[in-house]
Design brief:
three-stranded mixed beta sheet; 60% helix; single chain; mainly alpha; 3 strands; 4 domains
Length: 864
């Protein structure tokens, strides 16, 4: 079921009509009308104290209530106008969808449905025009140009003005939520009826069952999700986002779609729709009937499971996917893997883009794509789920192979599978190619990590991390660099030519999720290594100190700069970046975990150089850094622990925490889609599924460079630098500390930075004693200079001269889609902003058709 803060379109419609009805009644009461004298309340069965009375308001009673309000001159609040307009819009959409084709419709049912809309429109028109008519006329005259005269893109700001900050759908009972606009004015009448709910009494429910409207809303929501998914993979195809972002967003959309289906299936009338499969088949047949399209099998051409002239209707209702899956069920036999031979039903013409093909060509390519992959799911069932992880489509289709029953969940999943493939065609395997490149990169990093574990053993390194590293390497070798399933498939189907990595190539979502999981593991291993060996932090403190030393030329270690950009400097530098030697040394020791009292003794010279070996005994718990990828951290738990990409409530909460925490951009406009969602969430704590997915996609794309940052490689280079620095400064280190300093460094290589900074501090203090006034008027302890710091700077400059200082940055330029993108304000950003506006506003604008046409040219990409 959907989480309580997410509402599908039917829930929103019910909440909208109930809210308008309650406002109408309560306003009429405040004007002196006794509604109870007009309408008889229905007493609930429950006799518990505080139970609400439900009063059904017949449609003919609306005119009476409107008359009272109009005569009293009460103004219609913006929020109430909005919810009524939204309710009318979805009802109109339903009416249009089921009166297409010019065929005769049942006169009574059609008249009843249209009468329902007419009553609501009449109430809206009278309430809206009764007050401030002159002002409204003035506003209309001032508009330049009229909407229909300009391009649809200019309408977006106007449409966004109608976005409500209060959905008023805090519960299924339609209780009125908090009002943001017009609070204290006309929205909340002073007189209210306690413990009583008013609802519309649909007098034509017998002729037009509500369950068909529920089914329409569900299919409408599912197809809107499909459009969002198609745009997501179009962005991947165009190089705007990466395969990980596209896959995780799609997988999340599939989960939300399945929850919508389960939600409606649990509430819909079983007499009209016995099960979820019947929703797609019945709605398809009804649409064909209303369009005067015969569904008699005798009228079909040879080899057609349905009339291909109705392909668009079959696609909208998910009937085509249902029919294809049902045709596969008889093929399932115990102990048999039914792999499909391409071309079995004849040649498939893919010379044209999918949307330019004929209905017959579309069906042929879709049928072949579906049948080609279904055998893979049967094989996985036979293998007893032997997978690294499963995407939601794979999980759902494996369930179908076990139960041998087709539901709307299965049809929706396979339809999304087809949509993604058709968008990426002919490069459907591109995400798998990205995964292969990630595998090669990961293999190199993991092998380096295992070598470092042997070369620099650390007792604090968890053994489980070594096992995890070896497990990932084994998976890469057996499943991504070579296909170990091929011999097993050949045994299951002798004589059949099996393609390597077939499921990964055919299912871009699985490839993208696997790549996401692999990078999550690399990040986890890299950060654990850095926190365990403390490899990066010492060089960060030294690097920061050298940047302020006048005798040290400017250093440019780009990987360290990027590391600091990705992580919280206040954590690394204990409150902020230090400037002088003493301040830097203090913060370095505090970060290392030493008690403040002991730090004071070292800084003041109480501890002598020959006793430095005792310093390790004073180390407490060093500070550690955490991932800065909020969503990656949440998904990591699901992927690593469950081996399933679960879109759990915890992940949803992370998305919404992100929405709460990110400050408004000073460069973005008030109608920025992201800012609109922030205001909406903070006000109502509700979102639509599309809005949640839009936030998820945006945040995933933002996190991508942080997730791809090679922590293992930086860890390796830092350890390598410490060894070279020790060799370069060995003579000075022996001079200051004696030969025993090597014992500490051999145990923990990064500790060489302690001796460098300690020597610089003692030298500074000695010079300050000899020259109290210093060579200048400044009081900085860097003014005297330091041989140790100067030689350390020379060593860093020598080390990064060969390109070792920007390896991680170069990797990001190769692997990341987002790293180095233009800042906000460029053409690409503007276009992306318009797309974000579309998806965040489509369910909230009064007339979604106009905004949808801006994106697709027609409503939701379909003529309904």
């Amino acid at each position: 079921m959907l989480p309580p803060f997410l509402k599908n379109s039917y829930h929103r419609y019910k909440a909208d009509t109930t809210r308008f009805t309650e406002w109408l009644v309560q306003t009429a009461i405040s004007c002196g009308t006794k509604v109870e004298d007009l309408f008889t309340p229905d007493v609930p069965k429950s006799s518990k104290k505080g139970s609400k009375r439900i009063t059904k308001i017949p449609l003919k009673g609306y005119a009476t209530l409107v008359d009272v309000i109009v005569k009293a001159g009460v103004k219609l609040p913006k929020t109430i106008r909005f919810v009524l307009e939204r309710a009318i819009a979805i009802r109109k959409k339903f009416a249009v969808a089921f009166r297409m084709g010019g065929g005769e419709v049942d006169e009574k049912a059609d008249k009843g449905h249209l009468h329902f809309i007419t009553v609501l429109e009449g109430a809206l028109e009278r309430l809206g025009s009764a007050v401030d008519a002159a002002v409204e006329r003035g506003k209309r005259q001032a508009k330049k140009p009229r909407k229909e005269e300009g391009p649809i893109g200019q309408e977006i700001p106007d449409l966004l003005e109608k976005l409500t900050l209060d959905d008023g759908d805090d519960g299924d009972d339609g209780a009125q939520g908090p009002i943001v606009e017009d609070v204290g004015k006309d929205d909340k009448p002073k007189t209210t009826t306690q413990h009583q709910t008013f609802e519309i009494e649909d007098e034509y429910e017998v002729e037009l069952p509500e369950s068909f409207f529920m089914a329409f809303c569900l299919l409408n929501d599912l197809n809107t999700l499909r459009d969002f998914i198609k745009e997501t993979w179009t962005e991947y195809k165009d190089g705007i986002i990466d395969a990980m972002t596209a896959a995780v967003t799609t997988n999340s959309a599939v989960i939300l779609g399945k929850e919508m289906i389960d939600d409606v299936s649990s509430k819909i009338d079983r007499e009209d729709f016995p099960d979820s499969q019947s929703i797609s088949v019945t709605m398809y047949q009804l649409r064909c009937l209303l369009d005067n399209v015969p569904i008699n099998p005798s009228r079909r051409r040879a080899g057609e499971p349905f009339d291909l002239d109705t392909l668009e209707i079959a696609d909208w209702s998910h009937a085509m996917a249902t029919i294809l899956l049902q045709s596969f069920i008889p093929v399932l036999q115990p102990g048999h893997c039914p792999f499909y031979r391409k071309g079995h039903f004849g040649p498939v013409d893919t010379s044209k883009p999918y949307n330019q093909r004929s209905n017959e060509q579309k069906f042929q390519s879709d049928r072949e794509a579906v049948l080609d992959v279904l055998g893979e799911f049967v094989f996985l069932v036979r293998m007893k789920n032997a997978m690294w992880l499963k995407d939601e489509i794979t999980e759902t289709m494996m369930d179908m192979m076990v139960t041998k029953k087709v539901t709307l969940n299965h049809a929706f999943c396979i339809q999304v599978f087809l949509d993604v493939g058709n968008v990426l065609e002919p490069k459907k395997s591109a995400p798998f190619n990205d995964l292969r490149m990630t595998s090669l990169r990961a293999k190199k990093s993991l092998n380096s990590l295992l070598s470092l574990i042997k070369k620099h053993p650390c007792p604090l390194w968890p053994k489980a991390m070594t096992e995890q590293t070896q497990g990932i390497l084994e998976f890469i070798e057996n499943h991504l660099l070579k296909d170990v399933w091929i011999p097993l498939k050949e045994k299951s189907a002798p004589g059949f030519k099996h393609a390597e990595f077939h499921l990964f190539k055919e299912n871009p979502i699985l490839s993208g999720l696997t790549m996401y999981d692999m990078n999550l593991n690399l990040q986890d291993l890299g950060l654990t290594a850095i926190n365990t060996w403390k490899s990066v932090f010492p060089i960060l403190h030294l690097y920061n100190l050298l940047e302020h030393a006048r005798e040290v030329p400017t250093l440019d270690w780009k990987d360290l700069d990027l590391f600091l950009k990705f992580h919280d400097e206040k954590t690394i530098f204990i409150g902020g970046r230090p400037v002088g030697i003493e301040d830097s040394f203090k913060r370095f020791l505090l970060f290392w975990g030493m008690p403040a009292t002991f730090v004071s003794k070292i800084v003041n010279g109480v501890t002598k150089p020959e006793n430095n070996s005792r310093l390790r005994q004073a180390v407490g718990t060093p500070r550690a850094i955490a991932p800065t990828t909020v969503l990656a951290t949440a998904f990591h738990v699901a992927l690593v622990e469950d081996r399933k990409a679960s879109f759990s409530l915890a992940i949803v909460e992370k998305v919404l925490e992100y929405l709460d925490s990110v400050p408004d951009s000073p460069t973005s406009s008030p109608t920025n889609a992201f800012n609109i969602l922030k205001r909406k969430w903070k006000s109502t704590k509700t979102l639509t599924p599309l809005q949640l997915l839009a936030i998820l996609r945006r945040n995933l794309a933002t996190e991508e460079p942080r997730l791809l940052f090679n922590y293992i490689g930086l860890h390796e280079r830092c350890l390598d630098f410490y060894e070279k620095a020790r060799a370069h400064l060995h003579d000075k280190l022996v001079q200051y500390n004696g030969p025993n300093y090597l014992k500490d460094i051999e145990k923990e290589t990064p500790f060489v930075v302690f001796y460098i900074m300690h020597a610089a501090l003692m030298s500074s203090k000695a010079q300050r004693t000899l020259f109290p006034k210093g060579p200048s008027s400044t009081s900085s302890d860097l003014e005297f200079g330091s041989v140790m710091l100067r030689r350390s700077g020379e060593q860093i400059r020598e080390y990064i001269k060969g390109g070792k200082g920007e390896v991680a940055c170069k990797e990001l330029r190769v692997f990341s889609k987002m790293y180095g993108k233009v800042s906000e304000g460029g053409l690409e950003t503007k276009q992306k902003e318009e797309k974000d506006v579309y998806w965040t506003a489509i369910e909230d604008v009064v007339d979604p058709k106009a905004l949808a046409m801006y994106q697709f040219g027609r409503l939701d990409g379909r003529d309904i």
